[in-house]
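Notes, p. 3: input format for complexes.
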Amino acid sequence: MNELFLSKSRYCRAKQCMKMFWMDQYMPDKKISKASESVFINGTMVGELAKGLFGKYQDIEYSANKKEMIEQTIKYLENKPNIITEASFTYDNNFCSVDILKNDIDGMEIYEVKSSSDVKDIYLDDASYQYFILSNLGFKIKSVNLVHINKEYVRHGDIEINKLFKIENITEIAKEKQTEIEEKIKELNLFMKNNEKSEPKIDIGHHCQNPYNCDYWEYCTRNLPNPNVFDIAEMHWTKKYEKYYEGKADYKDLLDEDLPEKYKEQVDFEVNNKSPKIDKKSIKEFLDELSYPIYFLDFETFQDAIPQFDNENPYKQIPFQYSLHYIEKEGGELKHKEFLGEAGKDPRRDIAERLVKDIPKDVCVTAYNMGFEKGVIRELAEMYPDLSEHLLNIRENIKDLMVPFFRRYYYEKKLAGSYSIKDVLPTLFPDDPELDYHNLPVVHNGGEASETYLSLVGKTKEEQEKLRQGLLVYCKLDTLAMVKIWEKLKEIVE
Ligand code: SF4
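Output follows (494 residues plus iron/sulfur cluster):
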């Protein structure tokens, strides 16, 4: 007998970690969610669109009262053959809503919709849990399927829903998982009973990051030293856990460990409170590769699960904005240009045209983490053959301002292994409010930039103007930051 009330998401959370399930019940205030708004928006939009995948459907409206949803489902089930979305069922305290249910004369087909472009193992658990409920209720299930985004799809004209989605039949996997689900529910009941009065003793482990980063990580690691092995930048989780299980979470215990140089350096700087490391010769060699006129370029992009425009793939990076600072000659004035696309209009042609107007051929262009800017420009060049020669020329001339920090020609303790511009800037300019992203009015990071841009459609002119202004000052700070970093590097080697 299942005494807990389980839904498919609660079941999946318990599958990842039973303590997570326990925390949800007893200490939900300890949750620190880092999920991005755009992932949520994309997921909702995909779910809504997918409802029409097989034609006309009857929708069960969401209600906090699950009984209402179930009663409505029972009524719709009588109309077979039909398609019901969010059809809701309960068996032995297990509840699920099926994204799309094909209710045929000879049985049912379950379709679980996901907004991602690949199939994760946890999706199999999610869909198999639905099979568990429906088959135990005595329904004949013909198939269980996962519906997910087809990344290869390219929009031309109206969305072709059958091409946008891929369907994977996972019926056999769902059948194989039935005993496991039954056992897991029993285990979970026992676990919750045994831990009714006290916090369960489950140690952190790979399950904390798989399949999702757990929202209780800060809570579960609260007693570890600060910083600890999990703060070592870019070290693989397997290595981090290896050291953790050896009892070497503390930086002091890692000093003599056989670790790659960059990890040891981070630990060494922290423990021994070292002063900044500055390799002037390498910084100078890097700076000597840059020449006037010099341009500082930064793009903002967004990604759509459902392509809005022609020639767009799901999840393709679509550039909608750039900021460009430039200095034409030594001692010359710092000038600025910028582009921000119109709300709801494909920005790519306009941005490509403006780029070739704003950046002459054969000039030195810098970007911070240039792989991103180069990728955006390559895609624009592929889309617009008439502009490709100039665009590719810009791309060829890009130099990466991140190099001195990535290669650690400059490193200090405060960077804590990071070479991100968002860490480098406050490290080099700790007390400059004009260079502090926290002081910006609307947009403070790339994620907020894309969310803000996508939110412009449907807003009043005044609201749009305020948000556009927020976007412009944010992106402008990104390239001003690059100018300041470049100047600081020059100052260092002088
Ligand atoms: S941080 Fe790890 S151990 Fe703690 S609840 Fe989350 S998954 Fe479980």
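The radius of gyration is 27 Å.
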